[in-house]
Amino acid sequence: MSRQKCIALIAHDEKKDDMAAFARQNEKVLAQAKIVATGTTGGRVLEACPGLDVTRLKSGPLGGDQQIGALIATGEVDLLIFFVDPLTPMPHDVDVKALMRLAIVYDIPMALNRATAEHLLDFAAV
Ligand SMILES: O=C(CO)COP(=O)(O)O
């Protein structure tokens, strides 16, 4: 039997409502996976869907993006869903860029907005 899929969820502040709505809408699919999330995003996802298996890491600006990058490097993440806010400068922009780079290096499917995330979830059908 193949191992349970791991989905990483991250949303910048302006996109957190969107992430909560996305989680609610896709709760059944997400419930079949193990979820890892940056701290605040994970809290919002759990508020929206208390039954999900969510491991909350550090908040993004405090190293959470790098933790998810490390999980990608060790082969533990199958899909990255990251709702990026393109309109707000971030103090941890270099961490965000590093995370995206690792997702590319390890060829992990990566959705940076909701429209793509819906397609990837359908496609991955965990
Ligand atoms: O900043 C983030 C991603 O870069 C997200 O972190 P939080 O989920 O803790 O807000």
Automatic annotation (TrEMBL):
GO BP, sorted A to Z: methylglyoxal biosynthetic process
Active site: D65
UniProt catalytic activity: dihydroxyacetone phosphate = methylglyoxal + phosphate
Source species, domain of life: Bacteria
Keyword flag Cell division: no
CDD domains: MGS (cd01422)
Keywords: Lyase
EC number: 4.2.3.3
Gene3D superfamilies documented for this protein: Methylglyoxal synthase-like domain
Record domain MGS-like: where: 1-126
GO molecular function, one term: methylglyoxal synthase activity
Group of enzyme by EC: lyase
Binding positions for substrate per the UniProt entry: H12, K16, T38, G39, T40, T41, S59, G60, H92
Pfam families, alphabetized: MGS (PF02142)
Keyword DNA damage attached: no
GO annotation, cellular component aspect: cytosol
Family under the similarity heading: Belongs to the methylglyoxal synthase family.
Entry function: Catalyzes the formation of methylglyoxal from dihydroxyacetone phosphate.
Protein name per Swiss-Prot or TrEMBL: Methylglyoxal synthase
Originating gene: mgsA
